[in-house]
Amino acid sequence: MTPLLRAAGALLIPVFALVGTPAQAQETFRIGFVNPDRVLREAQPAKAAQAKLESEFLKREKDLQGQGEALKAASEKFEREAPTLSESQRTTRQRSLVDQDRDFQRRRREFQEDLNARKNEELQQVYERANRVVKQVAEAEKYDAILQEAIYINPKHDITEKVIKALNASVAGGK
Description:
The chain is mainly alpha-helical and 175 residues long. It has a two-stranded parallel ribbon with strand order 1-2. It is rod-shaped, with a radius of gyration of 31 Å.
């Protein structure tokens, strides 16, 4: 027997073994899918985290809006009065407006950075909690694999609703 035939035979033996095995004896592979975006939109821990962030940053956001409106009003006032101002007054007010705008942009950037950092912290906690729940659901229902990203998934494999309910129950249960 040539080496090529031996190699081909070695590859085909497992295939014939699978074909010869009764369907009942073959183990089924269970797969599930979780939509993480939907979990973050609908689960109570995610909603609570969002509400916490909104209350935490509401005052700073209102202060920034007020500063922005004041800057806009001052700029409009300057535009109206500029033709009647002396050159030195016009230069002084322009510098003042530029300084105010620079301060506003800096504060807005700091606000956005702080908000993003806190949002990432809160989302990380929600993701960790959701991953624990996904694992619990997978183990309880004997799934072999759970996917979080897929181009297409048959809706019968989507366990997102089960995960959301389990997450909400864990909040109600005080976990």
